[in-house]
Amino acid sequence: MTEQLHAGAVAIGRNEGARLRRCLESIRAQGIPAVYVDSGSSDQSVALARELGAEVLELDPSEAFSAARARNEGAARLRERVDALRWVLFIDGDCELAEGFLDAAIAELAHHDAYAVVFGRRRERYPDASPYNRLCDIEWDGTPGDVTACGGDALMRISALTGVGGFDPSFIGGEEPELCVRLRAAGWRIRRIAAPMTIHDAAMTRFSQWWRRAMRGGHAYAHGASRHGGPPEHFRRGEVRSLLFWGAGLPVLSLLATLLTTAGLWLLLLYPIQVLRVRRSPVARSLPASAAWLYAASCVGSKLPEFCGAAKFYAGLMRGQKTELIEYK
Predict the structure, then answer these.
(1) Which residue range forms the structural domain that includes residue 102?
(2) Residue 275 lies in a domain
(3) Which of 112, 162, 172, 312 is spaced 20 to 30 A from 258 at the CA atom?
(4) In this structure, what DSSP letter does residue 246 have?
(5) Closest by alpha carbon to 102, among 118, 115, 114, 113?
């Protein structure tokens, strides 16, 4: 496909091991140039990437690491390397690119000038390995069509990306939806297509990993709301209100009420009631029963770690300090 002559890939990672090999080999199979951006790996990631023919950028550790920063620097290097670059494929180092996605996504962008971003279905490699992997696989799903945001794997129009200043490197999570807010404000549209896109390896087998990932989500919600929470977008305000109520407000209210009367404990019944409500949501009803209950319980149970992540963001904001990466692997 001639349009691939104007495409390149940016893979980002940190200590991905064998996952990175699968990622870079799947990019190499497409015949497009690749830049691998490493955020301080202590394993053999850098040597492996060079062995597989990718150009390697090692981020300066004197500046804070973030996926947003890595993608920006990778895209800048790709623009220097590829003449007339039009499309940049962003992919996380723990993902393998699905055959056929690149052609389908380029065709979508080439024939629809209004779209800045095209992405497809990300699947979990081992969804049955743990309930946490299963939750990731559910999270990656969605209905094809125009959407408000994408995830970390996506094909982007380089002119649109540079036109809004790229990713915001201050975000340690949720940088893709934040970018999409600015893209849509500039008149661009985001498209999800039905094609398989990537196979992701979450490698989450412990509760502590799920907790930290939820914390990162709460931090992203709070950061996003602080940046774009006003009209007309009201970005992430609903998520922040939810985590404040379920993660902090209701537990505190129940505790205070219990000091006055044992009837205060009845307030805690709102949690299982909320699980039942989520279980009846369209997403949950589309799942098998066991997965639906897992999804509903996680949606409600994640509010506490999300609150912790949001509190971490607000504490850093008051101190004028940037939060370090919240990693779960």
Answers:
(1) 2-205
(2) yes
(3) 312
(4) I
(5) 118
Domain count, the chain: 2
- Cis before 232? omega within 30: yes
- CA–CA dist 232, 151 (Å, integer): 22
User: pLDDT at residue 141 above 60?
Assistant: yes
How large a percentage of the chain has pLDDT more than 70?
98
Residue with tokens 């060079």: 50
Phi-psi region of 177 (alpha: psi -120 to 50; beta: other; left: phi over 0): alpha
Residue 286 phi/psi, 5° resolution?
-85, -5
User: Residue 324 above 70 pLDDT?
Assistant: yes
| This prediction's pTM | 0.93
DSSP symbols for 107-127: HHHHH-TTEEEEEEEEEES-T
Q: Give the integer Cα–Cα distance in Å for 62 and 66.
A: 12
**Alpha carbons 118 and 115: distance in angstroms, whole number:** 7
